[in-house]
Amino acid sequence: MLDIKLIRENPEKINELLQRRSPDLSVNEILEIDKQRRELQVKADNLRAQRKNASQDIGKLKKEGKDTEALQEQVRQMGEEIKDLEVQETELNEKQRDMLLNIPNIPDETTPVGRDESANIVIKTVGEIPHKSFEIKPHWDIGPELGILDFERGVKISESRFTIYRGAGAGLERAIINFFLEVHTKEHGYIEYLPPYLVNSTTMTGTGQLPKFKADMYKCEEEDLFLIPTAEVPLTNIYAGEILNEDDLPMYMTAFTPCFRREAGSAGKDTRGLIRQHQFNKVELVKLCTPETSPDEHEKLTCDAEKILELLELPYRRIALCTGDIGFSAQKCYDLEVWLPSSGCYREISSCSNFGDFQARRANLKYRNKATNKPEFLHTINGSGLAVGRTFAAILENCQQEDGSILIPKVLQKYFGAEIIK
RNA sequence: GGAGAGGUGGCCGAGUCGGCUGAAGGCGGCACCCUGCUAAGGUGUUAUGUGGGAAACUGCAUCGUGGGUUCGAAUCCCACCCUCUCCGCCA
């Protein structure tokens, strides 16, 4: 959510920045609402003040035993008028909030300008693309052949985009999760969490999934609960509505969770394999920090995710997403893409975003600034560290040997308990 | 799921028959003072949000949430949420 005061003070600037995302975005309408809203508030405030004084007078007069009928009647009418104004006030407040909740974050000045992914910029490419003497089988073929993935029966017991991991497959998935968590907690200083996988609508609004992206999520019919699409949601909201000490920042959090996404609108896309599932595992990294440190912390978090790919010796590249491609809540975002031989291209395996105070404002996440001693919105950052299923697929393909066996990356062997899957 | 108790500021805790109570008192925090050091002591200060104002300053709202009664609600009524205790059920 953008700051209404900021909008009020620099509407042209905000419009210009928003239009870097999409030309049809503007804050003009909201400014009009804001103006009406404030006028109404002044009016209502004054009337409430009048009533308050009059009521107190009635109290005093009554004590003196004087007749207050006429005054009471007058105040009663005032009350009617106030009630009326309050209805309008609530309506405008809700309208304004609703509009604010549907406006995306303004892009950072360093976010490349462009309308779609073609304007994204490759920041760096790490590792050699493997040139094998044999043809690498896609993971959706090699997985079932090794008996470690069962796509067909996953579909049978659930529906499409659900997969069963079996035997060494389940073990490898678990090993990857443990490896990720181990690196982030032991080497990178994150604290591990195990949050709820179902969260309420307030929480979903805090990080920006609601109200705009309701169709992307699984919703419980009987209660106000949604399956999390990423651990970002519960982790970022843990301290929602609280005022943290500046000394407690930055806060580094990590969690392994399954993620649930309806993938509405992705019909026909990535229909084979593990790339696009309704349920997938992910280790997420989340930071809460002060505004001053957030650009640095964002870079560092991205490096923390990259470190995993380097340890696994998987070829990858870092992309700076352009204004037309960054997510709704983000002001700046890097994608990490891993080399996937079957597709002959790099595929997203992590997305590391700096949200500025956008999520903090929605979730009411503050810290007490030591210099001013005032509560201020903090900054939130997150990134995948990494998507587990896609890592699994990348290993199956990049570490494939001519005989169809999979050579487990060295760093993973002690977690997996073997060197090879065959 | 059934029965009962309760939800007040960072924390603890008052709040009488509804009326200067945004809220006593204590603890904690901060600032200053005193003291050779420490300990103790003294004084002051210390909620959040949202408006108005160049500023000084100031209005309004908030006592779990939302309604209602009333001239006036932290105090009364209703609904909901949450916490605790006991019973039941259960990985």
Keywords:
2 domains; RNA-binding; three-stranded mixed sheet; alpha+beta; single chain; BirA Bifunctional Protein, domain 2; 422 residues; 13 helices
Briefly characterize the structure.
The chain contains 13 helices and 17 strands. The protein has about 425 residues and is α+β, with helices and mostly antiparallel strands. It folds into two domains: about 30-100; about 115-420, Bira Bifunctional Protein, Domain 2 (BirA Bifunctional Protein, domain 2, 2-Layer Sandwich), CATH 3.30.930.
Structural overview:
By secondary structure, the chain is of the alpha+beta class. The chain folds into two domains: 28-101; 117-421, 2-Layer Sandwich (BirA Bifunctional Protein, domain 2), CATH 3.30.930.10. It has helices at residues 4-9, 11-21, 28-63, 69-101, 139-146, 151-157, 168-187, 201-207, 232-237, 294-312, 358-363, 388-398, 410-416; strands at 121-126, 149-150, 164-165, 191-193, 198-199, 226-227, 243-245, 251-260, 279-289, 316-320, 332-340, 345-354, 366-368, 375-377, 379-387, 406-407, 420-421. Helix 7 packs across helix 13 (410-416). The longest helix has 36 residues, at 28-63. The protein binds one RNA strand of 91 nucleotides through helix 3 and helix 4.
Number of strands: 17
Structural class: alpha+beta
* CATH level 3 topology of the largest domain: BirA Bifunctional Protein, domain 2
Q: Describe the sheet with the most strands.
A: 8 strands, mixed
CATH architecture of the largest domain: 2-Layer Sandwich
Give the number of domains: 2
Helix content: 40-55%
Task: Calculate Rg over CA atoms.
Answer: 27 Å
Mean pLDDT: 94
Distance between the termini: 51 Å
Strand order of the largest sheet: 1-10-11-12-15-9-8-4
**Which outline best applies?**
elongated
CATH class of the largest domain: Alpha Beta
What is the CATH homology-level superfamily of the largest domain? Bira Bifunctional Protein, Domain 2
Number of separate helices: 13
Low-confidence stretches: none
Order of helices and strands: HHHHEHEHEHEEHEHEEEHEEEHEEEHEHE
Strand composition percent: 15-25%
